[in-house]
């Protein structure tokens, strides 16, 4: 009998259930594999990052010429407290939708959205209440109205559709990226027009409000999925509360850890010097945000789907996919360290000259964060959430004690170096957690760090050979 007859025989003769071939429904489109989803998410993350960086650079180039450095310092101080309110009250909505097994359930999504809306309004009211005491603390009367104004976008973003997070859960982030870029572009247009007409710190606030409004409208009209409505499901609320305990502790400590440096320097530096530091910090935050975006859009969803694997298999998959990412990040950090001073000179005028050496030092401090975040999501996926708060607590101690001492003995350069070293405690806490759960990849960390040092050394030697000086000139 020829092979071509076999399918016909199989159709007309009974076949034992255990030996029957699987039925393939060719009418249904085949779902993309996890690897394909990860590649698509990585591509769109890069598109989103590139577009975001481009828009922010244009914004910085224009607005730093329209506004005075003190405006950035004031907005920076207000942003610290606004971001703090958000992080100190993070109840795990984002992590819950992406990581929870109930994350696709409509009742779960609507309950999460209800929590999100109520929280947004509450935070806006708290921002209003904080205006006067914070203004007294920093002796800046304008913070009385700047803090409440900065809280308005929080209340607006509370209405954002959960479909934004559902898309990230499924690693379908093309439309999410387009929405985010559109919102950033709309904010840029508003800020430039406002800055040309009446430049002030309110120019930056107006951009935040525009960004929030555009994001909310597009999240409900462009993305497929549930149409959110007010709901309270006890099972969903219990799951959010269970996950939210550690998320709340983690984000609260993360806020204090990440903002403690600027809170301290806000008392030590003049507004003009603080404004220059904030500009360098904005540049430093761009690659940091890229990696955090990759972490939330790719690494966490992928790790969550594999969380039930035996630890050795999960570790092997994580490390294999992490290797090319680390090599790319090492190249990025090396370029920022070696050529960061040129970027500052191109983008900003002479009032921000000190940022030419501040930015390269801060850029070197990105590496411990990159090592941590590219592996730490494995701990989040298996719900081992207590290592991140431990790392943040260590960072608070290091910055709280080390920054004032470094500033006292070595001035601003010492303070900047202390900030750059601030993520080392987070990395060490993550290493400890990964080791305890059989997920450690310390050998890969050493190899990638060696590659980074080799790239930086080659770049610095090349600059010296060409007579281009050091990126750290002016610091020491």
Structure description:
The structure is a single chain. By secondary structure, this protein is an all-alpha fold. It folds into two domains: about 30-250, no CATH class; about 270-475, no CATH class. The protein contains 17 helices and no strands. The chain has helices at about 5-10, 35-65, 70-90, 95-100, 105-140, 145-155, 165-170, 175-195, 200-220, 235-270, 270-305, 310-345, 355-365, 365-380, 385-420, 425-435, 440-465. Helix 2 (about 35-65) runs parallel beside helix 8 (about 175-195), helix 2 (about 35-65) packs antiparallel against helix 11 (about 270-305) and helix 3 (about 70-90) crosses helix 6 (about 145-155). The longest helix has about 35 residues, at about 310-345.
SSE layout and pairing:
Layout: H1 6-12, H2 34-66, H3 69-88, H4 93-99, H5 106-138, H6 143-157, H7 163-169, H8 174-197, H9 202-221, H10 234-268, H11 271-305, H12 311-347, H13 355-364, H14 366-381, H15 387-420, H16 424-436, H17 442-465
Helix pairs in contact: 2-8, 2-11, 3-6, 3-10, 3-11, 4-7, 5-6, 5-10, 6-9, 8-9, 10-15, 11-13, 11-14, 12-13, 12-14, 12-17, 13-15, 14-16, 15-16
Mean pLDDT: 80
* Number of helices, where a helix is a run of at least 4 consecutive DSSP H or I residues: 17
Helix fraction? Answer: over 70%
Q: Rg to the nearest angstrom?
A: 25 Å
Q: Structural class of the secondary structure composition? A: mainly alpha
Order of helices and strands: HHHHHHHHHHHHHHHHH
N-to-C span:
86 Å
The coarse overall form would be globular
The largest β sheet comes out as: none
Task: Please indicate the percent range of residues in DSSP E strands (runs of 2 or more).
Answer: under 5%
Q: How many discrete domains?
A: 2
- Poorly predicted runs of 5 or more residues: 1-29
């Amino acid at each position: 009998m020829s092979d071509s007859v076999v399918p016909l025989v199989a159709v007309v003769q009974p076949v034992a259930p255990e030996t029957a071939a699987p039925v393939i429904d060719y009418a249904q489109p085949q779902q993309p594999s996890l690897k394909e989803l990860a590649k698509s998410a990585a591509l769109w993350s890069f598109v989103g990052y590139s577009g975001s960086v481009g828009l922010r650079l244009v914004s910085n180039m224009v607005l730093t010429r329209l506004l005075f450095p003190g405006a950035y310092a004031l907005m920076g101080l207000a942003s610290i407290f606004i971001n703090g309110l958000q992080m100190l009250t993070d109840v795990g909505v984002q992590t819950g939708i992406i990581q929870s097994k109930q994350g696709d359930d409509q009742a779960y999504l609507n309950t999460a959205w209800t929590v999100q809306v109520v929280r947004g309004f509450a935070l806006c009211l708290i921002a209003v209440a904080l205006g006067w005491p914070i203004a007294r603390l920093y002796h800046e009367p304008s913070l009385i109205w700047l803090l409440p104004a900065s809280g308005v976008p929080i209340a607006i973003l509370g209405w954002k559709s959960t479909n934004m997070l559902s898309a990230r859960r499924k690693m379908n982030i093309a439309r999410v990226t387009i929405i985010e870029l559109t919102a950033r572009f709309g904010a840029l247009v508003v800020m430039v027009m406002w800055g040309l007409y009446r430049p002030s710190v309110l120019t930056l606030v107006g951009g935040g409000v525009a960004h929030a409004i555009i994001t909310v409208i597009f999240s409900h009209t462009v993305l497929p999925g549930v149409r959110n409505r007010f709901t309270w499901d006890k099972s969903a609320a219990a799951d959010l509360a269970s996950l939210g305990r550690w998320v709340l502790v983690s984000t609260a400590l993360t806020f204090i850890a990440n903002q403690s440096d600027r809170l301290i320097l806000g008392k030590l530096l003049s507004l003009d010097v603080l404004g220059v530091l904030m500009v360098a910090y904005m540049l430093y935050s761009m690659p940091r945000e890229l990696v955090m975006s990759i972490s939330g859009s790719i690494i966490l969803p992928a790790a969550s789907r594999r969380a039930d694997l035996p630890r050795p298999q999960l570790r092997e998959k994580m490390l294999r996919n992490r290797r090319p990412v680390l090599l790319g990040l090492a190249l990025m950090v090396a370029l920022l360290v070696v050529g960061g001073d040129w970027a500052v000179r191109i983008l900003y005028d002479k009032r921000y000259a000190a940022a030419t050496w501040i930015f390269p030092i801060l850029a070197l401090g990105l590496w411990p964060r990159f090592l941590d975040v590219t592996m730490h999501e494995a701990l989040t996926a298996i719900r081992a959430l207590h290592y991140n708060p431990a790392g943040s607590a260590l960072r608070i101690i290091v910055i709280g004690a080390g920054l004032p001492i470094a500033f006292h003995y070595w001035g601003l350069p010492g303070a900047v170096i202390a900030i750059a070293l601030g993520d080392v405690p987070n990395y060490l806490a993550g290493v400890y957690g990964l080791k305890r759960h059989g997920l450690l990849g310390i050998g890969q960390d050493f190899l990638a760090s060696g590659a980074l040092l080799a790239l930086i050394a080659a770049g610095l030697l090349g600059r010296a050979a060409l007579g281009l000086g050091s990126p750290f000139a002016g610091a020491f």
